[in-house]
Amino acid sequence: MNTHTAAEHRYLQVARTLRKEIVDGVYPVGSQLPTEHELCERFAVSRYTVREALRRLREDNLVSSRPRTGTQVVPRPTTSSYAQDVMSINDLLAFAAGAQLEIESNTMVTIDAELKGRTGLGLGEQWLAVRGYRQDAAAHVPICRTEYYVNRAFASVGRLLHRHTGPIFPLIEDLFGVSIVEVRQEISAVPVDHDLAALLRIPVGAPALQLQRCYTTSDGEVAQVTVNTHPAQHYRHSMTMRRVKGAG
């Protein structure tokens, strides 16, 4: 890997760390980020790398920079669209923090043919089904329908969800001492059904994007499967791909 490519990868790591700290409240809205010099020392990187990381945060509407005043954390603009820029499992946590989970039902279900087709789970298996919707944490506007299917071995996590608004897989990790090491995502186009149309006040049959995520532990066990359904016009998924030197 040449020096320029290494620097590109490093700035993404710096941006990811700072983004998580902003979301976690280490740097609240209105506060100043450390100076470029301080960030260079903290991460042991060049000024170029720090500036590229800060540029990424500005593109995410997390900070603003002005000459001689430094970089300040700003409130994210209210929007009817849900933009997702995910580089790691940690980023799933960061973005989920801005969209609260409102649970409508929490019960064991037996996987039938319809659920098997949407989740990939085994026909006749029993899973904990947690169903509801996510809403914008600031505007309290429904964003999407959300369904969690939790492995029966971890189903007791359901008793902790009555006051829970964030992602569920960190609870599984904490309660059972397992580690989620892989999340496989599939995106497919589906028509909006009556329930989703009523929730989001959009026409029945309008196009929607369905995101299925399968969370796997270090033991190779599927801990949970989630299905999120977004109106197509309100969802944008951003992914950056880079050429690996020597790859075909």
TrEMBL record:
Out of the domains of life, which is the source? Answer: Bacteria
Q: Write the signal peptide boundaries.
A: none
- Gene Ontology BP terms: negative regulation of DNA-templated transcription
SUPFAM superfamilies listed in its UniProt record: Chorismate lyase-like, Winged helix' DNA-binding domain
Q: Where is the HTH gntR-type domain?
A: 8-76
Keywords, sorted A to Z: DNA-binding, Transcription, Transcription regulation
User: A GO molecular function for this record?
Assistant: DNA binding
Q: What is this protein called?
A: GntR family transcriptional regulator
Report the source organism: Mycolicibacterium bacteremicum (Mycobacterium bacteremicum)
